[in-house]
Design brief:
The protein is of the alpha+beta class. It is built from 9 helices and 10 strands. A hairpin with a 3-residue loop joins strand 1 and strand 2. The longest helix is centred in the C-terminal third of the chain and has 16 residues, at 201-216. The termini are far apart.
């Protein structure tokens, strides 16, 4: 149970942890939580507890509660685990994941020194402060903070410093002459007055948060992932009239953080609506 002991030690330092299974990925949803039937676990944006006691909601399941970490369901997960992960944003941290020597050389020339953790292929640089996560912000560099997880590889060396503007700027896209999102989202109301069929307001919030996560974690075929994610959101929430411009803007922002152009976002959204007859 070495992973359990490590997790308890990390959690004691106020860093929320979760187990990873083979492939360095989170445990999948349990039967009770499949297709978000549970309404989701709480996250930084909205409350709404899930009654499932297991670590089956990826970064959103990360916790510092030793009773939860040591509970029966979690103990069984630790037995199957291949690594301990943590939610940097939940601890108020940002990880600059440097995946090769070129990326490390760039960081040493560009970013202020901070706590450094060696990885298999490079280094994690840890800064104090949370921000939006994004992959491939430059060659060999990922940002892991809110709505993301990182493998726990030890406390590293050095002292954490404040998150610099140079890191925040990595996720800022250059201005485009193409509108970044539709100005209005109009979806037809369903029969019965258009009343939202979802059980609680947090159901929609959880759906949007999980969609953002799915896009942020895409390692390849990003455009296809964005389209499938837009399609899933619209198939669940597109007919009750509860989607707002703000929700769509969040999805577009996540897609653009992965390198999608505003035009691709608009096309993917339009194609998904067309396929569903919206």
């Amino acid at each position: 149970m070495s992973f359990l002991r490590t997790a308890l030690s990390v959690a004691a330092a106020s860093v929320p942890v979760l187990p990873l299974r083979a492939g360095k990925v989170p445990f999948g949803n349990c039967a009770a939580c499949a297709d978000n039937a549970c309404g989701g676990r709480p996250n930084m944006k909205a409350p709404g507890p899930c009654t499932c006691p297991g670590p089956c909601h990826a970064w959103a399941a990360a916790t510092t509660d030793p009773d939860v970490i040591s509970s029966g369901v979690w103990r069984r997960a630790w037995v199957r685990a291949t690594a301990v992960a943590y939610h940097p944003g939940g601890a108020g941290l940002t990880v600059v994941d440097l995946d090769n020597t070129d990326a490390i050389t760039w960081a040493r020339k560009t970013l202020p020194a901070t706590q450094t953790v060696p990885t298999t292929r490079g280094e994690h640089w840890l800064y104090l402060g949370a921000m939006q996560s994004a992959n491939a912000v430059r060659p060999g560099v990922d940002i892991k903070s809110t709505m993301a997880y990182a493998r726990w590889l030890g406390f590293g060396t050095g002292t954490k410093t404040a998150l610099p503007d140079a890191v925040r700027a990595l996720t800022v896209k250059k201005p485009s002459t193409v509108p970044s999102a539709p100005q209005a989202i109009a979806v037809p109301a369903p029969a019965g007055g258009g009343e939202c069929r979802h059980r609680t307001p947090t159901y929609l919030e959880r759906g949007i948060a999980m969609a953002e996560q799915a896009i942020c974690e895409a390692r390849e075929a990003v455009h296809a992932t964005v389209y499938r994610t837009f399609l899933a959101v619209l198939s669940t929430h597109g007919r009750c009239g509860c989607l707002t411009d703000g929700h769509v803007a969040r999805l577009f922002a996540a897609a653009q953080a992965k390198g999608e152009s505003p035009r691709h976002c608009t096309d993917a959204w339009t194609n998904a609506r067309t396929r569903l007859g919206l």
